[in-house]
């Protein structure tokens, strides 16, 4: 039986894949419009059951030595890696990205399992000196409890995995609410958790509309922490709508700039810009939305960027696993891309590449769009001020590095930024002044699993990746002990 048949209309509660009792909605393949399978909307009773299962499992899971949890996470990583091909096909079916890219994401998920397995066996505390030698202050770390993880559709495996692995390593249990349009990758990960011998109730997956099922987790007093990745709008709503005090990690939208100075290796900068503007059709929170280029190299950069964008292949990601761009995940980001394009052109931007859907019958029923370059953009245009989440990038010239920084920081967002420059002084100046959680210099791979990743300003609070990504799921406890000198004769 295909995975999608097996997961059709299912929820994972207390270690069992059950059929959701509520009516299901169809999940469509964004490249063809065909129905992949149905997804259930968790009923309030099913949400209660998931929270109860996670609460019950927390007692024993949190009491295990870190090494025992590490074993489970290593097994999970091995199982996911072994089944990477099938899991990648499933992701492409529901999300649209080319299979090779989906496979890369699955392998990164496996790496995340192993990384946090290792962290789980290194959870330690501290002993802090006091004013008097009669006291010891011992700081221990304890898991928070039950986590509600709410995730978007652009990276259906990794964005679940960072939360799942950090939480499980720390000793927390979890209820995952994946995006409604990409529920099956999360369910497939849940299935692997069962196979890996992770005890029932430690990992639960409930599907359904965010405003109902996600909101129920936010409001549930039995959920101790919400780990959310998604738009700033929904993130803010979640923060406001919690009915009890609970920990929150909000990984939100971005509007990421790239700065190219006159000393930059221009070919490398163009290669980086092409990769980070169009990969996953630009549906990346750290996608390059806008590029500022030193006036002296502006025309040359633009000409090379347009050639680079036009050279990319757009295709059905299942049939052409090595395509550069597959279908966009749904009509929503495609419509926004077209809106931002029309707005920019109406305000004087020059269209240098793309700007339309690809021609051909094979694209007719899918959400495809060609990689698009807009020149001479200004901050009057949506393309430079709002997150597009599509395969389009706006470019503008700058005269001084001060102006470049001012333009780059002129946004409510603060997730990632990119710099291409050779001069050490330029690199130091820019990387210090860019008001972002991430500054990537002469590379567009901003994140690695070993280092904390998170936004500032309206891009969110909290960190994923790195040791920090596990500590987010822990409380500190201060145990202050007074010792007396031993009495004579002991
Ligand atoms: P979204 O609309 O905010 O949805 C994210 C998740 O929240 C989905 O599971 C959604 O469920 C759920 N949700 C919606 N309303 C809710 C509510 N009232 N209460 C609880 N949950 C609710 O975001 P998206 O459109 O899926 O994803 C794109 C956004 O994610 C972009 O802004 C992108 O920048 C951001 N993102 C950020 C990062 C990061 O690390 N900072 C990474 C990736 C993406 P439904 O799908 O059922 O509506
Ligand atoms: Mg949405």
How are the elements arranged and paired?
Blueprint (H helix, E strand, L loop, with lengths): L2 H5 L2 E4 L2 E4 L4 E5 L6 E6 L3 H20 L2 H17 L1 H12 L3 H22 L5 E3 L6 E9 L2 E5 L7 H13 L2 E5 L6 H12 L7 E3 L4 H10 L5 E5 L2 H10 L5 E5 L4 E5 L5 H13 L9 E7 L3 H13 L20 H16 L3 E4 L18 E4 L6 H4 L6 E7 L2 H8 L4 E2 L1 E5 L3 H10 L4 E4 L14 E2 L2 E2 L6 H4 L2 E9 L8
Parallel strand pairs: 7-8, 7-10, 8-9, 10-11, 12-13, 12-18, 13-16, 15-16, 18-19
Antiparallel strand pairs: 1-2, 3-4, 5-6, 6-22, 11-21, 14-15, 17-20
Bound molecules: NADP nicotinamide-adenine-dinucleotide phosphate and magnesium ion.
Would you summarize the structure shown here?
This protein has 490 residues and is α/β, with parallel strands linked by helices.
Structural class: alpha/beta
CATH homologous superfamily label of the largest domain: Aldehyde Dehydrogenase, Chain A, domain 1
Percentage of residues in strands: 15-25%
Main beta-sheet annotation: 7 strands, mixed
Q: Which geometry do the CA atoms define?
A: globular
Structurally, the number of domains stands at 2
Average the pLDDT over all residues and give the rounded result: 97
Bound molecules: NADP nicotinamide-adenine-dinucleotide phosphate, magnesium ion
- Provide the CATH topology of the largest domain: Aldehyde Dehydrogenase, Chain A, domain 1
CATH domain class name of the largest domain:
Alpha Beta
CATH architecture assignment of the largest domain: 3-Layer(aba) Sandwich
For the termini, the CA-CA separation is: 71 Å
Q: Oligomer, anyone?
A: single chain
Number of strands: 22
Q: Whole-number radius of gyration?
A: 24 Å
In order across it, which strands form the biggest sheet? 14-15-16-13-12-18-19
Helix content: 25-40%
- How many H/I helices? 16
Low-confidence stretches: none
């Amino acid at each position: 039986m295909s995975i999608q048949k097996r997961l059709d209309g299912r929820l994972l509660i207390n270690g069992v894949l059950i059929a959701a009792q509520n009516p299901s909605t169809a999940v469509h393949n964004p490249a063809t419009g065909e129905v992949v399978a149905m997804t259930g909307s968790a009923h309030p009773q099913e949400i209660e059951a998931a929270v109860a299962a996670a609460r019950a499992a927390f007692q024993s899971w949190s009491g295990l030595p870190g090494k025992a949890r590490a074993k489970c996470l290593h097994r999970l990583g091995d199982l996911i890696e072994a089944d990477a091909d099938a899991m990648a096909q499933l992701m492409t079916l529901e999300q649209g990205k080319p299979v090779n890219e989906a496979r890369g994401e699955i392998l990164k998920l496996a790496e995340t399992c192993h990384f946090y397995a290792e962290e789980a066996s290194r959870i330690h505390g501290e002993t802090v000196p006091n004013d008097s030698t009669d006291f010891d202050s011992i700081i221990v770390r304890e898991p928070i409890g039950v986590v509600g993880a709410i995730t978007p559709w652009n990276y259906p495996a990794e964005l679940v995995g960072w939360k799942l692995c950090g939480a499980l390593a720390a000793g927390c249990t979890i209820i995952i609410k994946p995006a409604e349009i990409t529920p099956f990758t999360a369910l497939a990960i849940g299935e692997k958790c069962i196979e890996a011998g992770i005890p029932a109730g430690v990992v639960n997956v409930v599907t359904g509309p965010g405003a109902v099922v996600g909101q129920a987790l936010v409001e549930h007093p039995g959920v101790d922490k919400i780990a959310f990745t998604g738009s700033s709008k929904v993130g803010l709503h979640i923060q406001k709508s919690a009915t009890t005090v609970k920990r929150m990690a909000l990984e939100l939208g971005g509007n990421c700039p790239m700065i190219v100075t006159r000393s930059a290796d221009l070919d490398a900068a163009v290669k980086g810009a092409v990769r980070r503007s169009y990969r996953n059709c630009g549906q990346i929170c750290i996608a390059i939305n806008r590029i500022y280029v030193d006036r002296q190299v502006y025309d040359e950069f633009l000409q090379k960027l347009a050639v680079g964008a036009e050279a990319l292949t757009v295709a059905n990601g299942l049939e052409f696993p090595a395509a550069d761009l597959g279908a966009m995940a749904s009509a929503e980001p495609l419509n926004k891309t077209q809106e931002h394009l029309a707005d920019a052109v109406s305000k004087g931007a020059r269209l240098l590449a793309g700007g339309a859907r690809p021609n051909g019958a094979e694209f007719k029923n899918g959400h495809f769009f060609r990689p698009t370059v807009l020149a001479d953009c200004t901050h009057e245009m949506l393309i430079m001020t709002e997150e597009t989440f599509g395969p389009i990038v706006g470019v503008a010239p700058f005269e001084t590095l001060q102006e470049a920084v001012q333009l780059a920081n002129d946004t409510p967002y603060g997730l990632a930024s990119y710099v291409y420059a050779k001069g050490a002084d330029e690199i130091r100046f820019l990387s210090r002044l860019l008001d972002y959680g991430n500054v990537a210099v002469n590379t567009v791979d901003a994140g690695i699993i070993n280092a904390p990743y998170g936004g500032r300003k309206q891009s969110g609070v909290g960190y994923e990746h790195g040791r920090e990504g596990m500590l987010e799921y822990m409380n500190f406890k201060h145990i202050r002990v007074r010792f007396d000198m031993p009495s004579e004769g002991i």
